[in-house]
Amino acid sequence: AGGAGTPGMAGLCRLLLLLALGRAAADGLLYPRETPSRERKELGGLWSFRADLSPGRDAGFVQRWYRQPLRQSGPVIDMPVPASFNDITQDPSLENYIGWVWYEKEALLPLRWLQDNLNTRVVLRFGSVHYYSIVWVNGVQVMEHEGGHLPFEADISSIIQSSPGIPCRITVALNNTLTPHTLPPGSIQYMTDRTRYPKNYFVQDIKFDFFNYAGIHRPVVLYTTPSVYIDDITVTTTSSESVAMVQYQVSVVGSTHYYLSLSLRDQEGKVVATGDGSAGELKVLNPNLWWPYLMHENPGYRYFLEVKMQAQANGAVLEDVYTLPIGIRTIYVTSTQFLINGKPFYFHGVNKHEDADV
Fold first, then answer.
1. Cα angle vertex 195, ends 190, 200, to 5°?
2. Dihedrals φ, ψ of 144, to 5°?
3. Distance in angstroms (rounded) separating the CA atoms of residues 67 and 78
4. CATH number of this structure's domain 39-176+212-225
5. What is the value of pTM for the model shown?
6. For the chain, N or C: smaller number of CB within 10 Å?
7. What is the pLDDT of residues 37-52, one digit of tens each?
């Protein structure tokens, strides 16, 4: 978010969209939902936390804090996740802290996640970490991510299934330093006058008018899929008052031999269209269109696209199920208007900060 009067916000939004599209093009990032074939474990709550207060902010890497429980490296405090670490305590040094901080969580996993190492895939997903992060599981680095606003995940099956019975210890090193390449951008200024500042003293220069919140900002979850799974679902819609067409494309990872069936249900659970295959089109008669709030007496109407996959792997029949909520709508942009379902839409309610005083 940027403040009213902050320059370049439209450009930043376009860049974020391009980053999201680029990430989605690399591989699917379906939101983790519980289904008949998928389980989900929430990791929100209190995590162990420690800020690296060494002059170079590098003690955590030099001493390899990720190789042992974080409490063995020195004093830790409880830190809620998701939250902004610099908005929790009454410690001014932590509120204004710039550099590496460390989080840790130990999770006990269901035994069924650990026994079937051929057909069960376990994924660790972070919704958002600001801004640069490195993640270890049981001391093994599993992912690295730059850019605080987007989700990222990694398959950790081989690590946790190689040592069943051992708690899954998740360690995150997070750096909230702003650079010319972060959103929002910033820079570090080192103060070299030894008569006024101690060695390695620096300040974070910013060009915006809001507080630089940092931390693990969105939920952290573990979830499972079969080893052959639905990786991504892309849906586009066209519609009129009497008929709508729902185009879909489904990608599957883990095998090239699979069968896909699809069912589109309305909000009452009634099946209104069916299909099969990895790409196609569903026809919906007399559709309930998706409308923004205040533009229709029944705004936000959603259908539910259930995708079922069956595949052979390792001598077993695997099934994966994923249900994607979708809205049927058309969007057009003219030189003067933004049209939803052919009617002009007026944008309002943007650029209001979470720390605004009204």
1. 30
2. -140, 135
3. 20
4. 2.60.120.260
5. 0.86
6. C
7. 999 999 999 999 999 9
